[in-house]
## 1
Amino acid sequence: MRKTIFSAAWLACGVMAWAQQTTPPAEPTDLTVRLQAAQSSLESKDYRGAESLLTPLANEFPDNADVQFDLGFAQDHLDENDAAIASYKASIKADPKYVPAHDALARLYFRLHRVDDARTELNTIASMDDAPAEAKGQALRMLANLDQSANPQQANDEILAAMKATGEKSSDAGAAGVLALRSGDYADAEQQYLKVLSADPTNVDARVGLGTALIGEKKFEDAAKTLVIGLKTAPDDSALNVTLAEAYANEGKDDEAITVLETLRKKTDAASSTPEAVDGMLARLYLMNDRPADAEPLLRELIAKTNDPALEDALGEALVKQAKYPEAEKVLAQAFAQRAAFHNDNAWGEAASHLAFAADRNAHPQVALQALQARSTVLPDTPASLFLQATSYDALHQYKDAAHYYHAFLAVSGGQYPDEEFKARHRLVALQQTR
């Protein structure tokens, strides 16, 4: 058990509120008196003065965990990171179970983006049998925050362990909601976010999470309703607006979705300050609703900010819809060449389809065939791809192959493409006369 004066720096920084305290001795020792002076400096935020008082003490008492910790605390606030790390480690060496030093060191590592080192300190606290329950719970919750993306199951276990240590905290439902969303358990996510909102109806993150969960459950109307409630108190929140637009789009209310995003975009100071999620979704909606000229500038702005070939593919599609075939082919060829950067092979295959179409319109049948052959390695043939292969071979005077693909097209078109079917039959008749 440590005396109150030795943990004063810990209490002053607000790291943890569960410090153990005992009554100081009736007759202060020399060490106690000198520490009191240093602690007064710490409490008045005179970290330089405290450091000058604590440095000789740390040299004289290298095995005193409290002295080393207090010195590390002062150095930490002076941004003397290497020195602070050394002092915190000295405190831990003096007492491996000194929780405040492990906690402070973990937080410093986080600020320095040394996540693995921070994780080591947090795991040490979480594994201590005699660590205070609040300390273990806090460490476990921080670990869960680290693990929620890469290892949601482990994060869930850490949240459960934290709740076992301290009982459920108000933040646990929100964390559980995030984990449920990541695992695709939308029903559980809905219940977790409802817990948060019952305690705090103005919690924007929980409102967005609930809307996302409801969209995942295909409860689009309910999602829109809960998001509209959130917008009453946070009308300019990007996440709320984007999620509401997503709910509307899934309901088939594209006009409402576009209005939401256009209104949000107008509220920004400049287009460059508009969140990328807003521009990206708005551009997609414009494309889906035959407004390629509106989508084009948004896509160009997004491409300037990021090297995402999926955006180049979308831009190429917008250009094709405006009959800007030469530029479309160039843009789509750039996207097609970046296969590894696509999110998945299917998306790359769709880009190949778009390139083939643009190349066909530019009278580049060889490029179209190369793109279609690449597409066929990841996606099944469709009536459109079969017809395009037939016309490309036809343009190259490779009539046997052209006839093969015209027949393949007619076998699956089923009357859905009357103009193309008429052309295919007409060309098959003509090709018979070339033999």
## 2
Amino acid sequence: MKSKKSLCFLFICTVAGLLCMGCSQQTFIKSLSGTIDAPLPADSMPPHILQAAQSASKFHCYDLMSDEAEAIAVTCIGEVDQTPTEGYGIVVTRGATTTNFLHLRNSRAPQAKFDAATGILWLSTSAIEGTGVCVEKLHQIRFDQTGKAYISFTVNPYDVQQALLRRLGYTIKGNQIALYDGKKLLHTATNTVTDMGSFDQEQPLWIGEQICYDLSGTTPKVVFTPGVKYTTGLVLTYDDMPDFAAPISIAEDSTITIHDIKVAPTH
């Protein structure tokens, strides 16, 4: 018959063994990094174009959005008289009232969508441009009693990045990259890049270079793509990463909320 002491020792060893097994099977989710270092400044039309715009007799515009039922139109300024705007200038018209947003960018295919239920005009504009880079701002535009438009809030890409970084994580096992929202598995991607070396040891997963918007539905969605960093090369690679999308909302106190994140459907 075993003594109480030996039985106690056996029990402790068994529990310790189970705990160790649990530790070895636990998934350690690591945090992503962000490419945007600080909030982006407000857009500003170059001074020489602004001067030309303020004294111009005519704006040459092209259509971006038209809602005949609400008598709302959004156009982009291509030229002021004979001066190209170099990708700046948005005009919002409601009824007979026109509002010029000269400092907003109109390059890189901006989008506009009016929500009649809330009276909000959503506008997405380019914030950072470059090869492999697509970063946008989301503007919430409202109208006063005269029909004049004003920007009630602008969603800064840095704030979106930081909100996502608080939620997103990853694990890597071999060539399998698993992305998580908290502890919820979002997607598992298989790395197929073979000419960039191995994954970066310090931080292989980043977000911030690809943050844009989908205004096609009833609620704006932020669309983002994580980038992979390798030991060779100075750029992030997106070959095997899917786009993710999530509805985004703005509270009365200007707090942004990013809702359920899912893999975006491919078209």
